[in-house]
Amino acid sequence: MQSLRLEIYLRNGKKEIIETETPMDWHFWRDGQQVAVYARLLDGKERYALYDAASARLVEELAGPSYESLLPEWAKSRAQVQDESVPIGDD
């Protein structure tokens, strides 16, 4: 289920809110230390943002590249990462 709002509850009891104009997809990154957010903007462009989960501070932001393979790993979905993975071993 997609949402326009992501609430992050901080250790100090405060709540930070990340909002987008259009539905967003999000996932945790680095064992829950960061939150990656993806949204397609109203003008059709894509926006990727990485937030620190402990403070909700923006760490990195980028517009969608012309090829998904050019995205940093944090901005890719689990399916994209698996598709790009190369098996190791003699199987």
Question: What would your notes on this structure say?
Answer:
This protein is mainly β. The protein has one domain. It contains 1 helix and 5 strands. It has a 5-stranded antiparallel β-sheet, with no helix packed on it. A hairpin with a 5-residue loop joins strand 1 and strand 2. The longest helix is centred in the C-terminal third of the chain and has 7 residues. The radius of gyration is 15 Å and the shape is globular.
Label the overall shape: globular
Strand percentage, roughly? over 45%
The helix content is under 10%
Order of helices and strands: EEEEEH
- Order of strands side by side in the largest beta sheet? 1-2-3-4-5
Distance between the termini: 37 Å
Q: Low-confidence parts, pLDDT < 50 over ≥5 residues?
A: none
Number of strands: 5
| Main sheet summary | 5 strands, antiparallel
Rg estimate, integer Å: 15 Å
- Structural class of the secondary elements? mainly beta
Q: Would you tell me the overall average pLDDT? A: 84
What count of helical segments does DSSP give? 1
Instruction: Tally the structural domains.
Output: 1
List the keywords.
5 strands; mainly beta; about 90 residues; about 45% strand; about 10% helix
What is the element layout, followed by pairings?
Layout: E1 3-9, E2 15-29, E3 34-40, E4 46-52, E5 58-63, H1 78-84
Antiparallel strand pairs: 1-2, 2-3, 3-4, 4-5
